[in-house]
């Protein structure tokens, strides 16, 4: 009975979450029959029908995934994180965390979407691409856990590694811009629906066992550090190719007419590959070290079934509707010319405000933020800050593709990351840690399956209508979605800190002075 109640609870939340996206697309479909749109059809009746049905299944998938995440992924991360810390062996921490980081990343569904786009023209083998990124996540997961164990400053580590990234960027030549776009996008997609619940609770498990005065703050930051590894590894991977002709024929192709059976078979296999390594590793590890009872193992096993079904349905629905619809909207509206670019910006704003509500990983993060902070940091404030950050990121990406085809993505990344790193000195540690985690979480499935095809579609249309501009890739938007929430969340921390200081000052003024008559009750 409790299972049915939980399914119904998560289903209601999921239906409310997808409602904004449905309303946006239906409104755009209706507007195409008015003078607001170019004089050609943007979306067909068939596309809208598939979209509505897919959104219903997307909500069902999100509901099952949320239930599975609560009963499986979060518990597995917490159990293993607590266990390896209790054993007090640095060697075990290094080996276990590296292997887990590598396994969960290679099979991350969001990374598969990007890997297929990057490798489709023979630019690089998708498996080499994913393995390199998995190694990067594994290395930085080790560093993130060692930071917690030895109580090192997260701020200093993040600043140090981003300085290395931007120093490394100086080594790139003519193809550097495309490499930077892919590198920062790969950082965002690695923190998807499978990895986020695991990484968040993995760090929380280590922090809870280690203890200390800042154990709650140390629960966050692991995901943010793991987002750095892919940037470094992809840059190193492409460094030998920077001046070659490998990028000459590189272009984006989005499947605008996916077949249901093909999508289902591919996604079901990808999700199975995503979960099997974690299931096998946890089963063996707990049998040797943790030794849970059969009832608890049954609950976790049932949670993995929910997770598998939820992710399969969610990602299949996203591939059937979100990718082609996003691409069609960006491509066909941009074909109308510069007079319709304002519409693309407006869509970017509205979509950015909405997709955080749909993203499964975001709900996992905000739930843990409320729990660890004892509800001092509210779910609404985190969601609001994330929505603002993602919306601004999409607008920046659309403006760059539409108006500045030769505008290097580093003109965005350098000042934005500089601002994000500078703000860490003015906010409490917990806000800085949550901010860098939220950047990776916000750039998840919805970003890779809807926003990226949307911006790619714009780039394709402008490349066709203005051949002189050359090839416009459309990559880079996921990287922007990863950095903007870091800034807005830390802005929330500054506001919260200001409010706290005001309350303390008011309290001090209300305290009677030493010369006042006072009655002391013992």
Descriptive overview:
This protein is mostly helical and 522 residues long. Helices cover 77% and strands 0% of the residues. It contains 20 helices and no strands. The model has no long low-confidence stretch (mean pLDDT 80).
Number of helices, counting only DSSP H or I runs of 4 residues or more: 20
**SSE class:** mainly alpha
Could you estimate the helical fraction of the residues in percent? Answer: over 70%
DSSP, total strands: 0
User: Rg, please?
Assistant: 23 Å
Percent in strands: under 5%
- State the oligomer: single chain
Shape: globular
Element order: H for helix, E for strand: HHHHHHHHHHHHHHHHHHHH
- Uncertain spans: none
Question: Could you give a short description of this structure?
Answer:
By secondary structure, the protein is mainly α. The chain contains 20 helices and no strands.
Secondary-structure map:
Elements: H1 2-31, H2 45-86, H3 90-106, H4 109-119, H5 126-149, H6 154-169, H7 176-189, H8 195-210, H9 215-218, H10 222-226, H11 228-238, H12 260-290, H13 294-334, H14 341-358, H15 360-372, H16 379-403, H17 410-423, H18 429-442, H19 445-465, H20 477-510
């Amino acid at each position: 009975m409790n299972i049915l109640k939980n399914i119904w609870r998560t289903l209601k939340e999921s239906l409310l979450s997808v409602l904004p996206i449905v309303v946006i697309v239906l409104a755009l479909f209706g507007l195409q029959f008015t003078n607001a749109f170019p004089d050609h059809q943007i979306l067909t009746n068939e596309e809208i029908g598939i979209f509505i049905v897919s959104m219903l299944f997307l909500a069902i998938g999100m509901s099952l995934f949320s239930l599975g995440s609560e009963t499986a992924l979060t518990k597995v991360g917490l159990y293993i994180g607590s266990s390896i810390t209790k054993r007090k062996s640095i060697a075990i921490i290094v080996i276990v965390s590296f292997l887990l980081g590598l396994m969960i990343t290679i099979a991350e569904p969001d990374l598969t979407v990007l890997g297929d786009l990057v490798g489709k023209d023979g630019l690089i083998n998708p498996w080499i691409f994913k393995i390199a990124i998995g190694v990067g996540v594994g290395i930085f997961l080790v560093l993130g856990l060692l930071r917690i164990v030895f109580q090192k400053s997260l701020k200093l580590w993040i600043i140090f590694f981003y300085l290395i990234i931007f120093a490394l960027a100086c080594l790139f030549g003519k193809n550097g811009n495309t490499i930077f776009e892919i590198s920062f996008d790969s950082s965002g997609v690695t923190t998807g629906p499978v990895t986020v619940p695991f990484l968040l609770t993995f760090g929380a498990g280590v922090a809870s066992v280690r203890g200390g005065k800042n154990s709650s703050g140390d629960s966050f930051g692991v995901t943010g550090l793991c987002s750095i590894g892919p940037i470094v590894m992809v840059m190193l991977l492409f460094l030998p190719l920077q001046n070659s002709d490998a990028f000459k024929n590189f272009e984006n192709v989005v499947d605008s007419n996916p077949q249901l059976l093909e999508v289902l078979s591919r996604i079901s296999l990808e999700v199975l590959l995503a979960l099997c390594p974690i299931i096998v590793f946890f089963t063996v590890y707990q049998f040797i070290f943790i030794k849970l009872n059969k009832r608890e193992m049954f609950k976790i096993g049932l949670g993995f079934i929910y997770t598998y079904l939820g992710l399969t349905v969610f990602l299949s629905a996203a591939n059937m509707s979100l990718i082609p619809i996003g691409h069609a909207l960006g491509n066909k509206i941009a074909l109308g010319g510069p007079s319709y670019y304002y519409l693309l910006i407006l869509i970017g704003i509205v979509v950015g405000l909405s997709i955080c509500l749909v993203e499964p990983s975001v709900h996992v993060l905000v739930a843990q933020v409320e729990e660890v902070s004892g509800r001092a940091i509210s779910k609404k404030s985190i969601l609001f800050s994330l929505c603002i950050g993602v919306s601004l990121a999409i607008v920046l990406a659309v403006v760059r593709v539409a108006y500045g085809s030769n505008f290097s993505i580093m003109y965005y990344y350098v000042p934005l990351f500089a601002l994000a790193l500078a703000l860490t000195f003015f906010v409490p540690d917990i806000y800085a840690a949550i901010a860098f985690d939220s950047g990776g979480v916000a750039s998840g499935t919805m970003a890779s399956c809807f926003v990226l095809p949307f911006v790619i579609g714009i780039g394709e249309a402008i490349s066709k209508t203005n051949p002189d501009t050359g090839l416009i890739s459309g990559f880079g938007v996921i990287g922007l979605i990863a950095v903007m929430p870091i800034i807005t969340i830390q802005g929330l921390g500054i506001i919260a800190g200001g409010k706290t200081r005001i309350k303390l000052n008011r309290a001090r003024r209300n305290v009677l002075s030493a010369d006042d008559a006072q009655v002391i009750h013992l």
